[in-house]
């Protein structure tokens, strides 16, 4: 063998290596060739590109020098083949400006549109223009209108798009008669180009421009740009023949831009004329009439943008309201469509109040936003756009005009029909019907039906939906409706004439069949109640009782009667779901009840209704108590929600039952507990307040509500004889109350009518708030035990005690006369001032003078520098009234209420009105019933009911004394001039008369022995020089055995007139 094994292997390896090297050489050569080809290609392209750019720059060096369109087209097309957006931006701008100029040329040779007329380039030219328009949209989406450079480019691009979306810009075609036959084809060309724009999201691009140009701190869009944007959008709509999909996009993307209409008025008013010319409003409302489209719009927008869409719709409606077309054709569509969209927002927005994902909106309040929505919620407040819906001419067209038309068949002076009788007594019903027939036989022949009645209900449904959706503007909406001419009064007449019973039967029937309260009539009632509650709240006494325009007092009487029966029937027949606070029926109930209570409290303060007006005749005391005892839910709701429908006496009896039931539950009722032990306290007479405060503060609430026995220590430090059986405790209460309510102590002040209220300067007393709590507790104990005390409170203070001031519609101005009549008159004069209020130099502040030191308090933050004007004067008078009656005594009142309600359950207090609470504290204002007093009188010391002196006494009181003197007599013997609310049977201790010749140790009551002994001993002494005296803590009259009736009369008259007591006995 020539080679060995090693040599063979080596040879093979060398051969393989040589082969691999040759292969690598070939690859290197191929790569070099490829790189060279790429470089040569790039160099060629670069040279070609540079040549194209050079040719373009040369062609467009002077854009005002027009060249043949075909040549320009070829050059422009070459540019677009090698186009770079960043590098060629300025070239593109030049191209656009040149094309715009060429289109304005009347020469077909130079007009860029002429290229489309050549067979060679027609198809490619259309694609070429589409490419240019696409580039325009691309640039527009990135430009910033606030930049001067971008602003110029923006105008050019918009002008370019406008020029190709209408043949009206093509001057060469329009000026050449021979080319007019081409117009239909060219119109289709513009439609083609518009379709291309729509496919490239032209509305998205325009929306971005509007947002960046309008929603900043400053408006950066110029009028020409605004007009161009809206023109482009408008042509897209027109050339698409308002197709549903395109129109929906326009509404979502463009018409929802916040304050769009407001900006159009200032920047492009001609666009609005265009909107009105084809009735854009009606087209939008027809879209919203479709619930599916409403849902689509809502889910495409942020809720706040939905509201801005509504604002633009309302703004356009306001501008169109004067047109005949709107009044005849658009109002119904507008009402239904807007109601539908507002309902969609309300039903979809999830209300939140304490969630990190919640969004606050100045009109909608707190809500959870749609996470899929890409629009920012940070938009300006829309209140100015929304206001016309409930104010001004638009409101007239939507509601007032239809009310007038619906009521046209009813004579203007026709009185509102009365509700049916408040009793099922057939005799009363027949009498009522007969009286009504005599008063006006034609009164009930009217029935409000027809198209206008339907439109009234629909409009009210719209405003009701506004209240439920735009929650933060509820007050503005209601105020607008209240003061929009006589709309509220017309709505009242419309409701009242729904049937022959003031609308009651009609509405009850609807409520029975629609417990969800979705019907328009029930929503109309709720809207009226909400508006009327607000109206009465801000109505002063001059407007309500003297001017009586437009409402007269009879209207308030019928209104309250209607509501009283409506709520009573609704509760009795279980038509309201009162327990479910989220239900619509509960909302209706609350609105009706609020208006009823506003009227009732106004009547309590200054009567306008006849006696017994508020009572429901069907409710008898005995049966009412029986039903309550059985636990009937309906009766519990009635007494809780509308307690005034039963008599005051019934409610006082119920109050006493509540107290008695609580005492038994606590085990402190002395007659129901064998192991009962009263609490005994020792009080020094010269330190009654201090000792009383100490004991009451340390005593448990259970013991305080139980029986308390008082042992007095006189000024010499000696125990006074005996521990009382209620009498001494009553004296302790009376003496404590007398001292703490003495104005000289400066805990309380008196009004001009000598009524008490907390002193604003009480803080000079040490621990004054603790003292107020103590006083509240002591007074609460007196009421708890049924002890009447002569403590007349100012009405406004009692309202706070009842918790009425915490209610939304409480009016401080109403209560102001009970504090300061002069201030009330002054504020009323400000409210009715016919000139410019700012001339009075008033500010939102008040100056207090305390011990010669002047202090300024702001009614609102910075109020001392805010001038009172005609626009804010209503707010000023209410804030001023609130300050003097609430703010400056807030701490004192809160401490007093805390003490009072620690004894008296607040739910029990809800049974009573303000004057009724005063009666509960101080007794009845009714004339003294002497027969009732005589029936319950107890006699001691030999006296008895047939005794000569006793007979004289009753005759003197009945025949010789005036009502005022009888009150003085009652005050003389009981310390209170008013009788107990439930009669003298409830006077504790019972009223008694004792012959003063018999000593206390010998007095055992009217036994046979005492009567005989009295017969023989009663004349031992001459009583003619002795005056009658009294022990008010025991309700005891100490009467000498006078020999003549005239002496008794004179002595008694002198004693009660001199305010005698122990000291003259």
From TrEMBL:
Matching Gene3D superfamilies: Hect, E3 ligase catalytic domain (3.30.2410.10), Hect, E3 ligase catalytic domains (3.90.1750.10)
Q: Which Pfam families match?
A: HECT, IQ
Stored SUPFAM superfamilies = Hect, E3 ligase catalytic domain (SSF56204)
According to its UniProt entry, the protein's GO biological process terms are: protein polyubiquitination; regulation of signal transduction; ubiquitin-dependent protein catabolic process
User: Where, per UniProt, does this protein localize?
Assistant: Postsynaptic density
- Its top-level enzyme class, in one word, is transferase
Q: Which CDD domains match?
A: HECTc
Question: What are the protein's GO molecular function terms?
Answer: ligase activity; ubiquitin protein ligase activity
Under PROSITE patterns, the record lists: HECT, IQ
Major subcellular location class: other
Q: Which UniProt keywords apply?
A: Ligase, Synapse, Transferase, Ubl conjugation pathway
Domain spans labelled HECT:
697-1065
Supply the EC number(s). 2.3.2.26
- Does Transferase appear among the keywords? yes
Signal peptide range equals none
What are the annotated GO cellular component locations?
Answer: postsynaptic density
Its domain of life reads Eukaryota
Tell me what this protein is called.
Answer: Ubiquitin-protein ligase E3B
Q: Which organism is it from?
A: Sipha flava
């Amino acid at each position: 063998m020539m080679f060995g094994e090693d040599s063979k292997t080596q040879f093979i390896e060398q051969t393989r290596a040589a082969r691999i090297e040759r292969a690598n050489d070939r690859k290197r050569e191929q790569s070099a060739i490829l790189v060279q080809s790429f470089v040569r290609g790039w160099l060629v392209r670069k040279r070609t590109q540079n040549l194209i750019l050079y040719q373009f720059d040369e062609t467009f060096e002077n854009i005002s020098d027009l060249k043949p369109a075909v040549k320009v087209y070829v050059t422009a097309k070459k540019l677009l083949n090698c186009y770079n957006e960043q590098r060629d931006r300025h070239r593109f701008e030049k191209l656009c400006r040149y094309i715009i100029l060429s289109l304005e040329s009347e020469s077909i040779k130079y007009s860029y549109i002429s290229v489309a007329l050549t067979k060679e380039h027609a198809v490619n030219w259309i694609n070429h223009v589409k490419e240019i328009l696409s580039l325009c949209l691309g640039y527009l989406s990135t430009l910033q209108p606030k930049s001067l450079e971008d602003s110029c480019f923006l105008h050019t691009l918009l002008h370019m798009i406008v020029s190709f979306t209408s043949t009206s810009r093509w001057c060469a075609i329009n000026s050449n008669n021979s080319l007019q036959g081409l117009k239909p084809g060219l119109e289709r060309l513009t439609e083609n180009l518009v379709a291309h724009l729509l496919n490239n999201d032209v509305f998205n691009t325009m929306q971005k421009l509007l947002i960046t140009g309008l929603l900043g701190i400053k408006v950066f869009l110029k009028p020409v740009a605004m007009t161009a944007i809206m023109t482009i959008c408008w042509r897209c709509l027109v050339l698409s023949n308002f197709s549903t999909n395109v129109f929906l996009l326009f509404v979502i993307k463009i018409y929802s831009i916040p304050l769009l209409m407001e900006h159009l008025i200032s920047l492009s008013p001609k666009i609005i004329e265009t909107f009105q010319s084809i009735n854009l409003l009606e087209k939008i409302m027809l879209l919203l009439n479709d619930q599916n489209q409403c849902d689509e719009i809502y889910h495409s927008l942020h809720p706040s943008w939905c509201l801005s869409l509504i604002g633009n719709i309302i703004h356009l409606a306001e501008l169109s309201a004067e047109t005949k077309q709107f009044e005849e054709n658009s109002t119904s569509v507008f009402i239904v469509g807007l109601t539908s969209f507002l309902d969609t927002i309300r039903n979809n927005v999830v209300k939140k109040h304490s969630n990190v994902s919640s969004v606050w909106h100045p009109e909608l309040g707190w809500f959870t936003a749609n996470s899929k929505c890409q629009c920012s919620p940070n938009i300006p407040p829309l209140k100015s756009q929304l206001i016309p819906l409930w104010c001004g001419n638009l409101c007239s067209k939507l509601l007032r005009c239809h009310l007038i038309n619906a009521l046209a068949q009813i004579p203007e002076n026709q009185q509102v029909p009365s509700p049916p009788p408040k009793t099922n007594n057939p005799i009363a019903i027949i009498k009522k019907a007969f009286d009504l027939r005599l008063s006006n036989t034609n009164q009930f022949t009217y029935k409000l039906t027809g198209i206008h009645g339907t439109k009234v209900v629909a409009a009210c449904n719209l405003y009701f939906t506004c209240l439920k959706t735009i929650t933060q503007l509820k007050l503005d909406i209601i105020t607008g409706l209240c003061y929009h001419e006589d709309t509220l009064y017309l709505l009242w007449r419309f409701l009242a004439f729904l049937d022959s019973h003031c609308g009651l039967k009609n509405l009850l029937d609807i409520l029975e069949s629609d417990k969800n309260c979705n019907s328009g009539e029930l929503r109309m009632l709720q809207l009226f109640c909400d508006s009327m509650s607000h109206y009465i709240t801000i109505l002063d006494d001059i407007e309500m009782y003297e001017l009586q325009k437009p409402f007269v007092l009879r209207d308030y009487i019928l209104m309250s009667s209607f509501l009283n029966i409506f709520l009573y029937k609704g509760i009795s027949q279980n038509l309201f779901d009162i327990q479910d606070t989220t239900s619509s029926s509960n909302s209706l109930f609350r609105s009706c009840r609020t208006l009823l209570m506003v009227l009732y409290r106004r009547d309590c303060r200054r009567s306008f209704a006849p006696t017994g007006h508020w009572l429901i005749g069907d409710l008898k005391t005995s049966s009412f108590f029986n039903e309550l005892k059985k636990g009937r839910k309906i009766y519990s709701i009635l007494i809780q929600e509308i307690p005034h429908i039963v008599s005051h006496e019934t409610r006082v009896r119920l109050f006493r039952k509540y107290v008695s039931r609580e005492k038994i539950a606590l085990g402190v009722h002395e007659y129901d507990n064998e192991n009962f032990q009263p609490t005994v306290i020792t009080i020094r007479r010269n330190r009654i307040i201090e000792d009383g405060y100490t004991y009451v503060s340390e005593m448990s609430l259970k013991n305080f509500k139980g029986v308390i026995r008082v042992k007095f220590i006189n000024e010499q430090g000696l125990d006074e004889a005996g521990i009382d059986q209620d009498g001494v405790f009553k004296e302790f209460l009376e003496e404590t109350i007398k001292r703490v309510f003495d104005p000289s102590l400066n805990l309380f002040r008196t009004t001009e009518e000598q009524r008490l209220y907390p002193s604003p300067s009480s803080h000079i007393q040490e621990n004054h708030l603790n003292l107020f709590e103590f006083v509240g507790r002591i007074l609460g104990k007196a009421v708890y035990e049924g002890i009447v005390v002569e403590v007349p409170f100012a009405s406004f203070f009692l309202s706070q005690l009842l918790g009425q001031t915490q209610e939304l519609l409480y009016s401080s101005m109403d209560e102001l006369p009970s504090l300061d009549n002069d201030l009330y008159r002054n504020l009323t004069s400000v409210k009715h001032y016919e000139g410019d209020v700012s001339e009075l130099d008033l500010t939102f502040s008040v100056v207090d003078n305390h011990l010669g030191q002047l202090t300024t308090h702001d009614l609102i933050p910075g109020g001392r520098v805010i001038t009172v004007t005609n626009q804010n004067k209503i707010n000023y008078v209410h804030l001023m009234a609130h300050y003097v009656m609430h703010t400056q005594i807030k701490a004192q009142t809160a401490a007093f209420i805390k003490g009072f309600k620690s004894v008296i359950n607040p739910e029990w207090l809800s049974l009573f009105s303000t004057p009724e609470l005063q009666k509960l504290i101080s007794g009845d204002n009714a004339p003294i019933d002497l027969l009732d007093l005589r029936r319950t009188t107890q006699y001691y010391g030999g006296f008895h009911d047939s005794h000569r002196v006793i007979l004289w006494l009753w005759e003197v009181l009945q025949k010789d004394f005036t009502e005022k003197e009888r009150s003085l007599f009652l005050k003389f013997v009981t310390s209170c001039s008013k009788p107990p609310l439930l009669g003298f049977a409830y006077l504790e201790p019972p009223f008694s008369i004792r012959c003063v010749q018999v000593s206390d140790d010998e007095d055992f009551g009217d036994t046979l022995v005492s009567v005989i002994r009295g017969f023989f001993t009663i004349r031992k002494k001459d009583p003619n020089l002795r005056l009658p005296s009294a022990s008010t803590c025991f309700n005891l009259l100490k009467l000498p055995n006078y020999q003549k009736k005239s002496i008794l009369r004179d002595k008694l008259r002198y004693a009660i007139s001199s305010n005698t007591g122990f000291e003259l006995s």
